[in-house]
Design brief:
Bound molecules: uridine-5'-diphosphate-glucuronic acid
Largest sheet: 6 strands, parallel
Order of helices and strands: EHEHHEHEHEHEHEHEHHHHEHEEHEHEHE
Strand order of the largest sheet: 3-2-1-4-5-6
CATH topology of the largest domain: Rossmann fold
Helix content: 40-55%
Number of strands: 14
Radius of gyration: 24 Å
Length: about 425
């Protein structure tokens, strides 16, 4: 593929929109189809549907230069494009399996409109074996279109940078020619390209997220154990992370992993493994450990509050991690839900989130959140919370107690400000503990 060629992208969600703009930045002409009318209208007015650093500028640039256009019709995006990316959702079925009905419907719709020799690239995260099944599915309706797997590894909050400078690109296909065509999209980026078959590419994506899930559940379990044996998790992780085979990244303990990918993809891989006759016990244990982490945080909050019934809990942050306005499977909301069910009132603020569930009272300012509160819960590691004067926080609260689910604050500084402070795997600090 040479710059200036047209590429179709079906789906303007996180993956689709960022991929489309990354391809526009690489010089391709992009047609994106989007089924949600409101989202489509917004994109046509150059409004981004979610917060992501750098995304607005890219959209403005490429929409103004007419390098990208948006349409309601999948066929319109696909027809004149020698390459079409599928980036539609793969939600979970009740048993955790990935629901592929949207991917299948879209493939059925676009494949027959594509010219012989075109390439249909699956960006959505799908279970191993899906690409082969899709290829068989279009055998009659589009025999000369090749399905290629090119999974996405971007992180929310860094999606644009991850797309423009990927650490690796994985391309799975049958013919060298189709793999070469997808590889040519990345010729401007200095990155390693792994060329393989479709099922291996799909498993690579799932294995990456499953490994991260197992790693985090291991870290959280170690933090929980540190509490039981009176050790300090920060120092444990420093020592652990200095082993170059382990590394220091992705080792922060917390209330459990959330977001739209790690929890869902872990469950989907577990289900896909079971379908294939393999019991992925390590992954099952990681999921169970993650499910237990939010209730464990609630126990800490209950101990800090005395009782949850009637307690007023201030919550700093509700996004599933810092750097995003996304609350899908957010551990903060998991904790807030249990607190509300147990009779506590939760007053929360978040620098980016605009959509809050009704069981939370929303305020704009972290200081307003703590007014009269029995406990402050730090639920998302937003750096802005570090700028709030802790002495003033203590003065405004009914009782100066902090449960820091992200180990964001300095425990000693909190103790000096008069707080009883509890983190995750850290030794408690403050007047009650000294
Ligand atoms: C994740 C993967 O990191 C990406 O590589 C992948 O492409 C993406 O899923 C996807 O499949 O689309 P993302 O969901 O943006 O990316 O979020 P992460 O940064 O992985 O965080 C997931 C959860 O783990 C969050 O709740 C976060 O707070 C938690 N986390 C992360 C920790 O508790 N500790 C850490 O050290 C890191």
């Amino acid at each position: 593929m040479t710059p200036g060629s047209q590429i179709g992208v079906v789906g303007a969600g996180y993956v689709g929109l960022v991929t489309a703009l990354g391809l526009a930045e690489a010089g391709f002409d992009i047609v994106v189809s989007e089924a949600d009318g409101r989202r489509l209208d917004g994109l046509r007015r150059q409004e981004i549907p979610f917060f992501e650093p750098g995304l607005f500028d890219l959209l403005t640039k490429h929409a103004t230069q007419r390098r990208i256009r948006f349409t309601a019709s999948n066929a319109d995006a696909a027809q004149a494009s020698p390459m079409v990316f599928i980036a539609v959702p793969t939600p979970a079925n009740e048993n955790g399996d990935a629901d592929l009905s949207i991917v299948e419907r879209v493939v059925d719709e676009v494949a027959p409109t594509m010219a012989p020799g075109s390439v249909l690239v699956i960006k959505s995260t799908v279970p191993p074996g899906t690409g082969d099944r899709l290829q068989a599915r279009i055998a009659v309706i589009a025999p000369d279109v090749e399905v290629v797997s090119n999974p996405e590894f971007l992180r929310q909050g860094r999606a644009v940078a991850d797309t423009l400078q990927p650490d690796r690109v994985v391309i799975g296909g049958v013919s060298e020619a189709a793999i070469d065509r997808v590889a040519s999209l990345y010729s401007g980026a200095s990155t390693r390209i792994v060329r393989t078959d479709r099922t291996t590419a799909e498993l690579t994506k799932h294995a990456a997220n499953a490994y991260l899930a197992v790693r985090l559940s291991f870290v959280n379990a170690t933090a929980n154990l540190a509490e039981a044996v009176d050790a300090d998790i920060d120092e444990v992780l420093e020592g652990l992370g200095l082993d170059p085979r382990i590394g220091r990244g992705f080792l922060s303990p917390g209330p459990g992993f959330g977001g739209s990918c790690l929890p869902k993809d872990s469950r989907a891989l577990l289900a896909a493994a079971a379908d294939a006759g393999f019991d992925f016990g390590v992954l099952r244990a990681a999921i169970a450990a993650n499910d237990a982490q939010a209730p464990r945080m609630v126990d800490k909050i209950e101990r800090a509050a005395g009782t949850l019934d009637g307690a007023r809990v201030a919550m700093w942050g509700v996004a599933f991690k810092a750097g995003t306005d996304d609350t899908r499977e957010s551990p903060a909301l998991r904790v807030a839900r249990i607190l509300a069910d147990r009779g506590a009132s939760v007053v929360a603020c978040d620098p980016m989130v605009t959509d809050f569930p009704t069981f939370i009272t929303v305020v704009d300012d972290p200081l307003d959140a703590v007014d009269g509160a029995d406990v402050l819960v730090v639920a998302t590691e937003w750096p802005a919370f570090l700028d709030v004067e802790l002495k003033e926080v203590a003065a405004r609260m009914a009782r100066p107690r902090i449960v820091d689910m992200r180990n964001l604050l300095d425990a000693d500084e909190a103790a000096r400000a008069g707080f009883d402070y509890v983190g995750v795997g850290r030794r408690p600090a403050g007047p009650a503990f000294t």
